[in-house]
Protein 1
Amino acid sequence: MGPLGALRAELEAGGEACATLDLGSGATLLVSARGGRVFGPFAGDDDPLGWWPEGEALRRTVLEGGWNLGGERIWLAPEALFNFTDPHRIVETYRVDPALDPARWRLERQGAALRLSLDARIALASGAATVGVRIERTIAPLAALPADAGVATAGYRQTVAVRQTAGPALPLVPWIIRQVAPGGVALLAASGPGVGMRIFGDPPETALARRAGLRRVDLSGPGFYKAAYHRDAIGRGTIGYVRAGGPSGDAVLYGPVQREASAYPEALPLDPAAVGQAASLFYDSGRFGAYGELELYGHRDPDGAGRLTVDCLRLRGDAAALEGTIARLAG
């Protein structure tokens, strides 16, 4: 049994509702009501780019109600309101409210799409209050896909909306987090020469360099860090991940629908005066489980809702052709 079958079997054995979404070209998503997770896209039964705990670790996470199921999840930003109490001791004071994750989302089909929704009251990290939120997500196959010789492409669009239903008014936006297996290279397509910022740990210089164009950050070997990027750093660029093995390779690219910097209320924890955060990279070679994360933050619409629309492309093929496709799509 490959990763898709094993993952679904473990979730269903734990009583968790799941559904698959056919993306065409042999690609499939697995969506779980537990934690509102999106896993994949799988190519057949295989997903070398994804990360989730395997075997007994996955079984224990499901049975014990742990949040770290891997895959792709939605949390809330600004992160400082919900996940830590001290910006200078983020790791030591970090928390995840189980009302948000691993909450059980409502999972239903809507035509060719899947829809996840959650109504919850989430505690602020300070303990001062709770806020009511409604999160709605639609995951639908992409009808039009880029075509390059030697590269197989599948994709989906995820549309997320967050509305506050109770509590003190806050500038909430959705925060999408995609976990990836270690051993590859994260991609940041920067349209301007903005600099990345260290949040914690020891990010490599490639994660912090002031450089326009396609940045590449190695997510392999020893390391534990998070780096974040404001709108002036990545502009309207793409965030992604690529792994190559011999003559072939795999990649995932996230192309967000962006807004002006003022529509991004998230601020970097160590620089609260600088608003407009749009992306982050996280890497852990073993402290909490060996994986990396690609993170994107939503924007605020004039009607007060927090929104995020992201097109995700899964690319497989000849390594040289794959590099050319990445350069074209992320450039």
Note: The longest strand covers residues 151-166.
Protein 2
Amino acid sequence: MKTKAMENGVHDSARADADDLPDTATTAPLWQRLRQLTAARIGLPRSGASLATEALLDFRLSHARARDAVHAALDVDALRADLLPLGLPVLQCRSEAVERHRYLLRPDLGRRLDAESRDRLLSCGQRGLDLCITVADGLSATAGQQHATDLLNHLVPLLREQGWLLAPLVLLEQGRVAAGDDIGEALDVKCMVMLVGERPGLSSPDSLGAYMTWMPKVGRTDAERNCVSNIRPQGFPLAEAARKIAYLADRMRTEGCSGVRLKDENH
């Protein structure tokens, strides 16, 4: 049975804890300064036990943008037109996932080229070159649509300066990372740079990842790849990401490997 003193002790402790809580009015400027440094949702205003209306609507908008990015279709014709000034042939391919709904339900199908696309690569007349760049929709077609062209405008000149013989650019619909192994094997290249839309977050529906594999072939594991992630203006800036990709490609050529065996010493 609780005594009066015990009850008073509990009440006094709770009151003391409440007195220690920061006053919202005096800490608001601090949260405003911190929010300028991150896209994370910190110090959100509340109304009673719920988020304030503005913060709640902002959350719902971000959630809708992330969902839209997952279901968006890659505008291949527009992207192809944007990439042609790079001076490389552009080939269009598809995975075995025939449409978006099936792609999301069957990840395995997105990791393999369909037969028609494989035949197109085998008969393209430009096999056996050094490096292939593939742009895939992944889980955010928005990422490739918005950032792939600008990234490649930085990256392709760097690769040419390093002396790489570049295979045709490949635009892959309904594609996942491992499909790059299928493409690389069909084109018989030494290095695959797979640009793919990453799983959207609430603050990053347009994040592009570059997955790089030395001597790509069907059956490679993720441990045999290197990744440059969060490529977007608000994340890893495109020009810096291009320099990092070119650096890793050069290291792969020198060391003859990729993935966990390749150490990134350029920090």
Note: The beta strands are 46-47, 50-51, 90-94, 131-136, 169-173, 191-197, 208-214, 225-231.
